Fold this protein.
Amino acid sequence: MADFPKLPHDFTEHTLSSEQIFKGVLLDVRRDMVRLPNGKTATREFIIHNGATAVIPLLDKETIIMEYQFRYPNHQHYYEIPAGKLEVGEPALESAQRELLEETGYVAANWRHLTTLDMCISYSTEQIAFFVAEGLTFDAHKRDEEEFLETVPVPLKQAYQWIENGVINDTKTVAGLLWLKAFG
Amino acid sequence: MADFPKLPHDFTEHTLSSEQIFKGVLLDVRRDMVRLPNGKTATREFIIHNGATAVIPLLDKETIIMEYQFRYPNHQHYYEIPAGKLEVGEPALESAQRELLEETGYVAANWRHLTTLDMCISYSTEQIAFFVAEGLTFDAHKRDEEEFLETVPVPLKQAYQWIENGVINDTKTVAGLLWLKAFG
């Protein structure tokens, strides 16, 4: 990362106390008391997230593999790029390779890190590392049978049209694909 | 939105039970039991979010107003576009106008909806409506004194460089600005 151009003001909030509110199978919810820059106190509620990866799998220079799956919170099916959570201690690249194989059955010869983004900065620590995967080989037997999703090849041109007209509205997918379009 | 190209498979998860785990000043956490497509059951934990807006304020055709502020979950200062949560029952456009004024002191003559994105589809219902605001007029007295942030004019060209090299890594900001770059 380039030097971060800090501005003169320091708005750092200092932790006064921290408690775990809930620890479920997925969510780890914390509530901290903080001291604001003006000396007052405030409550901060947020999710501790171990991080995730997302993969843009290029079947050829003009076609990607997307996933069609159901996401419960908004009760919708989405077109997404493959993605998943890091296991504890798992490096991001290994996690991306594992997720691509489990979800799509593809192995990739060439991997390239695009960028890493903070997903929900006001209430989650989640960071997603984005990769481009090329040189794909399909091995159906390696695919996880328990994944409820369908993989579908989508021309990049079509994907960008779907972003523009709102058919693709998953933010990680939009951010990753538009990053690729803008910066390659 | 265009017709959603549904694929043959239906992966809908049906709600069996639903309970509120935590309701704080910010987070509303739910845990549902669901029936999976294969008949098995699973737990879904997620955040109920009332929605938000984000604004790209164009000072002129080549310059935007950004905010520099501290976000507690990752303990970092970020460069962001103005954004905020909807109040209950508040229309998205009104919310965007209110947030822009409270956070930056600017009123805009022209508003245009860009897109609406689902931010964290695996564990939050949050949807952000993105707007472009033009024809800006500054009124310092309308700015909320309790906002701990600094506003800074940033050339769009500079903002895109900062996205490319990772200085700007807030996903809503990246997605919104790259959407503007790709589709105008």
Q: What stands out?
A: Residues 92-104 of chain A form the longest helix (13 residues). The first strand of chain A starts at residue 14 and ends at 23. The two ends of chain A are 17 Å apart (CA to CA). The domain at 52-183 of chain A is CATH 3.90.79.10 (Nucleoside Triphosphate Pyrophosphohydrolase).
